[in-house]
């Protein structure tokens, strides 16, 4: 008897490290990717949607791609193209995709996918949380059909976009606040682990020679500014996938998390109450450490299983 696959929806803003996470997820034996929903984040939603379509075609997978929100709920949109390049996935020449996007807005496509699936679905947001907040607000009746949310974002320590805020949360703090207050089972895979989860120069050389995916990723890694080829490339989004299938790689703590939505210097900061100073009910499992060597070996092994 084979183990059942975990049905997931990846909400994403590809993005070079998003591309790595998507590639691993699409080929992982434990995962069943039901939908890619896109969001404005690393680059505009038009570009992230086009990138998602390119990836699905490159990996030769029949996964629907639904286009989502083009801006945050309340604040001006601020991209991260200085990290990922103008297109979001610079460095590799993908053909223009022939696949068309899902006819529904991503928020409606998420609802449709969840309600039509026999089992509860795990949401895996690896970009700003706008689509997820809109979905939970518009369709609260779907909460009972969600297994859990495993998100890449936030930090229990320092930020990467501002001194205190991680980019995905900073990009739409109001949306993040809604998600953390949803009452759902949430795991936050933030900078405390994702900044350590790097691929070394040797890893990158190995990946290049694995297969066609490895060559594609190697080409994009030359243009990725999340770390460097000399010091190690940060695989932020891949950590969310790793947590779902290999939670033993991580050290975690259950605690109360909230999001600062205003403040001259602190907007987008995740307040992670590790010492229970606020005496609030815990609402998230927070990843605080990772077995880096085991993660690197796992990442290379998974990429070897792609095309």
TrEMBL record:
Residue span(s) of domain Inosine/uridine-preferring nucleoside hydrolase: 8-296
The entry's keywords: Glycosidase, Hydrolase
Superkingdom per UniProt: Bacteria
Position of the signal peptide: none
Pfam families: IU_nuc_hydro
InterPro entries tied to this protein: I/U_nuclsd_hydro_CS, Inosine/uridine_hydrolase_dom, IUNH, Ribo_hydro-like
Protein name: Ribonucleoside hydrolase RihC
Species annotation: Paenibacillus lutimineralis
